[in-house]
């Protein structure tokens, strides 16, 4: 990410991240610069080993899912997506970060089970403690699937290189459905 060049700077999709870098859903961090990579490799300093932090699954209102057949699920419980959407907050403590040897983020994975009569109406966003919003699923006019998001895994790199020095961080998963139809089973 340090060696990406900002391209098409007039595109309105570019946003500044908490790390001060420009990010776009179309271009990521920009175009990779091979020469800059080679020059950086000459003085490269090794980083710490990769580490992970897995939170416990969150089940909203006892939501459960039963697989009926391939890609067909039945949901029980959960929380109805209201007209203002729904938010779920996950607390990450300094002790958790220390225990898992985390200092900077590279990416965030979120797995959701959402039932909805028109998947294209559902929007899923992850909001970091410093207010950076990462759109994991945007509205898609042509997506008429009635399957929702059964166990879908989303990943974002928009929070790359964010140093973690929060004493208590809340990751907020916000889900909105234009035509509020069904329920959220679980989020992780």
Keywords:
single chain, 188 residues, mainly beta, five-stranded antiparallel β-sheet, four-stranded antiparallel β-sheet, 2 helices, 7% helix, 38% strand, globular, disordered C terminus
Following the backbone from N to C, one meets helices and strands in this order, namely: EEEEHEEEEEHEEEEEE
Mean pLDDT: 80
**Alpha-beta content class:** mainly beta
The proportion of residues in beta strands is 35-45%
Low-confidence stretches: 179-188
- Distinct helical segment count: 2
Tell me the Rg in angstroms: 19 Å
Number of strands: 15
Report how far apart the termini are. Answer: 27 Å
Largest sheet: 5 strands, antiparallel
Helix content: under 10%
The shape, in one word, is globular
Descriptive overview:
The chain is mainly beta. Strands 5, 8, 10, 13 and 15 form a five-stranded antiparallel sheet that branches. The protein has a four-stranded antiparallel sheet with strand order 9-14-11-12. The C terminus is likely disordered.
At a glance:
The protein is mainly beta. It contains two helices and 15 strands. The two termini are 27 Å apart.
SSE blueprint:
Blueprint lengths: L3 E2 L9 E2 L5 E2 L7 E2 L1 H8 L16 E2 L4 E6 L2 E5 L2 E2 L5 E8 H6 L8 E7 L7 E6 L5 E5 L11 E8 L11 E10 L5 E5 L1
Antiparallel strand pairs: 1-4, 2-3, 5-15, 6-7, 8-15, 9-14, 10-13, 10-15, 11-12, 11-14
């Amino acid at each position: 990410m340090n060696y990406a060049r900002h391209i098409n700077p007039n595109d309105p999709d570019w946003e500044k991240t908490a790390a001060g870098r420009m990010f776009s859903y179309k271009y990521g961090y920009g175009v990779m610069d091979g020469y800059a990579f080679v020059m950086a490799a000459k003085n490269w300093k090794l980083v710490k080993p990769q580490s992970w932090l897995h939170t416990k699954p969150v089940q909203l209102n006892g939501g459960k899912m039963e697989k009926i057949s391939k890609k067909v699920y039945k949901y029980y419980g959960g929380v109805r997506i209201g007209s203002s959407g729904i938010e779920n907050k996950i607390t990450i403590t300094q002790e958790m970060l220390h225990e898992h040897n985390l200092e900077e983020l590279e990416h965030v994975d979120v797995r959701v089970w959402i039932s909805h009569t028109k998947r294209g109406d559902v929007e899923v966003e992850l909001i970091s403690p410093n207010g950076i919003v990462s759109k994991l699923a945007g509205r898609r006019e042509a997506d008429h699937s009635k399957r929702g998001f059964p166990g879908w895994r989303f990943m974002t790199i928009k929070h790359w290189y964010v140093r973690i020095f929060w004493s208590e961080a809340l990751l907020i998963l916000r889900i909105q459905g234009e035509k509020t139809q069904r329920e959220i089973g679980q989020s992780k």
